[in-house]
Amino acid sequence: MNPQAIGKPLTRIDGRAKVTGAARYAAEFNQPNQAYAVIVSSTIGLGRITGIDPAAEHLPGVLAIISHLNAPRLPYNPHKGGIDPSYGERLHVLQDDQVRFYGQPVALVVADTLVRAERAAAALRITYDAQHPIVGPRDKQAKPIAPEADGRLEADNVRGDPEAALASAAVAVDITSDIARQNHHPMEPHATIAAWDGDRLTLWSKSQFVANEQEEIAAVFGMAPENVQVICPFVGGAFGTSLRTWPHVTLAALAARQVGRPVKLALTRRQMSFTTGHRPRTLQRMALGATRDGRLTSIIHEGTGETSRYEQFIESLTSGTDFMYSCPNVRTRYRLVPLDTGTPTYMRGPGEASGMYALETALDELAYKLGIDPIELRRRNEPRIDESTNRPFSSRSLMACYDIGAERFGWAKRTPEPQSMRDGRLLIGMGTATATYPAMQFPASARARLLADGTAEIESAASDMGPGTYTSMTQVAADTLGIPVGRVRFSLGNSDFPPAPPHGGSQTMAAVGSAIRAACLAVQDLLVERAAANPRSPAHNMGKEALEWVDGHLRRKGGAASGQSYAEIVGAAGGVPVEATVSVARDPEIDNKYSMHAFGAVFVEVSVDPDVGIARVRRALGAYGAGRIVNPRLARSQCLGGMIGGIGMALMEHTSLDARDGRPVNAHMAEYLLPVNLDIPDLDVLFVDEVDPHVNPLGVKGLGEVSLVGMAPAIANAVFHATGRRIHELPIRIEHLLGV
Amino acid sequence: MIPFSLQKASSVGDAIAAARAGARYIAGGTTLVDLMREEVEQPDRLVDINALPLKRLQADGDDLVIGALVTMSACAAHPDVKRLQPVISEALLEGASPQLRNLATMGGNLLQRTRCPYFRMLDAGCNKRTPDSGCSAMDGYNGNHAVLGTSSHCLATHASDVAVALVALDATMQVLGPNGERTFPVEDLFRLPGTTPHLEHTLQPGELITAIRVPGGRYAPRARYLKVRDRSSYEFAVVSAAALLDLENGVIREARIACGGVGTKPWRMRACEQALAGRPADRSSFELAARLSLAGAQARSGNKFKMELMPATIVRALELARDVP
Ligand SMILES: Cc1cc2nc3c(=O)[nH]c(=O)nc-3n(C[C@H](O)[C@H](O)[C@H](O)COP(=O)(O)OP(=O)(O)OC[C@H]3O[C@@H](n4cnc5c(N)ncnc54)[C@H](O)[C@@H]3O)c2cc1C
Ligand code: SF4
Questions:
Q1: Which of A117, A263, A499, B258 has the fewest Cβ atoms within 10 angstroms?
Q2: Which of B140, B231, B313 sits opposite A679 (nearest CB)?
């Protein structure tokens, strides 16, 4: 492959469609004769529905009011996609009178207009027998449990004797953290339009994983998956909330079937905090023991995450700790607290974002105790191999990240003492932290089709929630085929396309990119066969070994002639397009051989107003080692987004629950604070030139998550440097910093 | 949203007649339409007042006369406002977002409703929204609530920023109603919740705000508005303070202070003001005076930190005002 497009900072090929409004999102695929559904959400946090007054049925325009009283029993056949919790059973919506959490859908109103559906939903009188829910992991009645064996994650890991090593450590720190529940709150709310044609169902539905949505809805309704089609060409941000298929998709399909019309169902912003997952609140303890010269002798990481009563949502909260640093005695323990709440889900940097917070703030604390520079401390504990598995890293550029990052950031100007740096009255702090995220790659498939005009059509049921999948995949296809990007049309977001894995876990580039590359190579092989079979072709009767592809032309290996173009080969065979569909999985041997992760070093400068406790990020820099960078412009943008998410996590984002009934009290964009432009003044992104020959043939690791991980601890460490105060809660707010 | 009828008033008389017959005024709609969408406000008739001649902003000697329909953006950018009372610009620009400020009017701003979250949740008890339904904030979430002027019925803040500056500036309201014209201090527009938190202001039925008059004074140059919040922009005040100082040789002749985010209405800090008169404009005077803001303050579980933040904000605002070049 002769990289022409890969590595170039191409602008988004779908950018124009997005800014002109031509890009259509789920709720914009309006269908003829479409009706509207509105979810009625439970107003209690736990209990039973005792009655639903049917009077609202007679309001103008109402087509149906569906509740557990009249909803058909849905088959809910067993189905678990890779993103569903492996233990427990999904919420069966409108199937019984039980209310498991505040905001659970308890009825659905369908009417001919949205306003009429809303009116009837507001008029619907529902009575309950309410009980007191337990919604906080610190509630005395909340009981931690060990998660059921999951196969993907071990709840307990131990090497050496960490307790004894901690007890005898020359220097030790032992700190706790409480990280708030967060909701994803992407700009685009969840929405589904459902239309039945006989027993075929089409869903235009916001999804990061159309292949799973197809299978899940087929399972819920007891249908053959091929009778369900899910279409989602654009996603207006998601951060993980559209990985699973949540109850509203079922409700839209159910409503459409009940009223015999296409039905649109969009969640309100408030409902975005009820049934579409959240980053679980976590409680953690991190104890570190070290020698005087800063070598870690013990790490104990105990992490607890919240989950629902009906499913065990697990995330890799303690996984980073297992391998991050060299240490002979390590114990990690992961527990869950089942609560009367909806099931949490993956949110950008799931597990690592919270877990690395605990590790990296504790390490910072240790650096102060030892009087060693935080970067130097990490350098002294840099492992040669992954000590949790005894496998070498496929590549690990952490120290290179620290080196180039520290240089560009000006880390040397930092004076180590807390409260030692000022700008006028403001306290200035600089903090740093390590970021990591596994380089995953699930099986993916793609189709490549060469047309008589020499252009290529590429299809995969992938998704683009913002990172630029459309663009980067086009680059991969163009370079693999040796043609300009303008001759490639890449389509995604349709379950009729070859299946792709969830658009999450930072693996789209690796998984879908590898599949597209393989599909393009496969179609080239088919074209070779065509050419070889054609008596008039210069390649007639020649084998693949004797030929080569150069700039989109097939020629004799090392030959001087320009060779035959795609158009010529396809045209010579009557113009019938040639296509190949290929599925690619990572060689399991690679997983057994290497520990594969992206790494990064994050630097932050904050100011803290000592009078009124305001902490603001003044500048931040992330340096990442994430394999090959396919498109530096998109990669930078992806990292900026992750870093901004980290600012939100550190200083703003939290969903507050009313302990009495579990209702989110800030389920509103004016009160659920996310960073605005003024909060992100100066962000910088650097990439280490990292060549990883093992992860996948493209050599890519993914950036989406690693860029959020590390930001929150770097900010907290900077706040400590500025103020000398270690805040054990996220987000860090004014109320925590008064009187510093 | 509940269906409603909309009428456009072409004269002040028309508007008042419509309001008298039960219609609600709508100006920028940024409060009203928002709450109608959530069905917290349920008017069945609206009268659009945007065509009325209340968009003028002019200097009258050293006074400012701000028409009720002047937008927040226009007011903030007006040269006379910047020259005579820059603290008004400052308070306005710290509020809402540019998009909102382009629509929102000065009259509407003063009558915006609280940001107590339960006020917007129809399934929660809220005396302000539904009299006698209880106050969910009292023993629930009360982190952004008031510590001054509260009652056992309600502890919601009034969330306007510019109202805080106007109260500190002794601005007055000009209103026109079925019974003619009235003028009264902006401070008197707002009621304390008492046992009737649903009654928020003192306008009579049908009364229309026509203008706000800001008296000129010797404070103008030394006046600052400080808004303390967790995000840099587009967030209501956690605590805010408008501080005005009249200095002579470093000694305070007179001070005026009002706070936002702490009271059930924009809160004038008269005890602090009195304590400052005749004192040197230094930090220890400010700290001593600021402590007096706590008299009568009562916190709940979530807003305890305001007992510390309120005086700290006052001190900082006073320093900022003193240091105006
Ligand atoms: C997301 C968000 C964030 C915000 N942040 C801030 C902030 O940080 N700081 C801040 O100060 N404000 C903030 N606001 C509030 C905003 O400033 C007000 O909504 C706005 O000023 C109201 O003006 P309006 O013209 O849109 O009023 P409308 O919505 O039209 O009317 C509001 C009320 O005033 C009445 N009314 C309007 N004009 C008159 C008149 N001339 N005479 C009598 N009655 C009248 C109406 O009947 C209605 O009851 C925010 C609002 C939103 C939605
Ligand atoms: S504080 Fe006031 S506005 Fe809030 S719930 Fe109580 S009564 Fe309603």
A1: A499
A2: B231
